[in-house]
From TrEMBL:
Domain of life: Eukaryota
Residues of the CMP/dCMP-type deaminase domain: 40-178
Source organism of the structure: Lentithecium fluviatile CBS 122367
InterPro entries xrefs: CMP_dCMP_dom, Cytidine_deaminase-like
Source species taxonomy: Eukaryota, Fungi, Dikarya, Ascomycota, Pezizomycotina
Record carries keyword Cytoplasm: no
Swiss-Prot/TrEMBL GO biological process terms: nucleobase-containing compound metabolic process
GO MF, any single term: catalytic activity
Alphabetical UniProt keywords: Signal
Protein name per Swiss-Prot or TrEMBL: CMP/dCMP-type deaminase domain-containing protein
Signal peptide stretch: 1-18
Length: 244
């Protein structure tokens, strides 16, 4: 019968998901000091990346991809971005399919630098002083790749790239992903001129993973005080901001 055939397909898909491994730099980074920056500073900025996302998109956005660009020398955020491609259409600021959080943050910084009358050479040098910090690996849910964002980070020549949740995690919890890791993209970028980019994965995943875990799982608890409600558009239980 159709329903049981469908159930079999879903079961097979779930089984396949559980056994698929996305190659990445899967390591516990707790306590690690890189470029003289303490782990507690890494945690502080990952939380600020989450907060930048909540400010722009509410406490439980469907597409929970937040990005900030940090100047660790000055200990400050230079600019922020969020994923404007998907999510609640009333909050959608842009519809361009390539404006993922990372691209949006790079655009915001370019505007800041242009406002300081910096030349293209000065702007290129500036990326080499900055760190890009994302709540998720740079990939998104639809057909656009996120090797795109990993490549944009390498083309910019950032000093550091820090992320929380991995592709593997989101694959396991039901997201459609492009299973090419940043690690693998970076491996192919060694011939680019200029700055190399240090990559630090899985920072504060205990706080970033829950932001991505409810979208395709009706049983997963909602983050940040959001409530389970039937989604009219999706036809199953999702999370909504009770104050929205
Ligand atoms: C980063 O901060 C340092 C110290 O305040 C400053 O000299 C430098 O210009 C800043 N870099 C950028 C790209 O904003
Ligand atoms: C997540 O882990 C960090 C240590 O890496 C800890 O300081 C923090 O309290 C944890 N967050 C939650 C919500 O448990
Ligand atoms: C869905 O959420 C429940 C409750 O947290 C959890 O036990 C289960 O493993 C989750 N399923 C998947 C596929 O992550
Ligand atoms: Zn992307």
């Amino acid at each position: 019968m159709f329903p049981s055939a469908l159930a079999t397909i879903i079961l097979l898909a779930a089984t396949a998901a559980a056994h698929f491994t996305v190659p990445n730099d899967d390591q516990d980074m707790s306590g690690v000091v890189v470029n003289g920056i303490s782990y507690s500073t890494r945690v502080k900025y990952m939380r600020l990346a989450n907060e930048a996302l909540f400010e722009q998109s509410g406490p439980c956005p469907f597409a929970a991809y937040g990005t900030i660009i940090v100047n660790h020398t000055a200990d400050e955020i230079v600019c922020r971005g969020a994923n404007f491609r998907t999510g609640d259409p009333t909050r959608m600021l842009m519809k361009h399919p390539s404006i993922h959080g990372e691209i949006s943050a790079i655009n915001a910084c370019t505007t800041v630098f242009a406002g300081r009358n910096m030349t293209p050479t000065e702007i290129y040098a500036a990326w080499g002083e900055l760190s890009i910090c994302t709540t998720s690996l740079p990939f998104h849910t639809n057909a656009e790749s996120c090797p795109m964002c990993a490549s944009a980070i390498r083309w910019s020549g950032f000093k550091e790239y820090i992320y929380g949740t991995t592709i593997q995690h989101n694959y396991n919890v039901g997201w459609g992903v492009i299973t090419l890791s940043s690690y693998d993209v970076f491996q192919q970028t060694r011939q680019l001129p200029g700055y190399q980019t240090v990559m630090l994965g899985q920072i504060l995943t205990n706080e970033t993973d829950p932001l991505f875990s409810w979208q395709y799982n009706e049983s997963y608890p909602c983050p940040n005080g959001c409530e389970k409600r039937m989604s009219v558009t999706r036809g199953y239980l999702g999370c909504v901001d009770p104050n929205a």
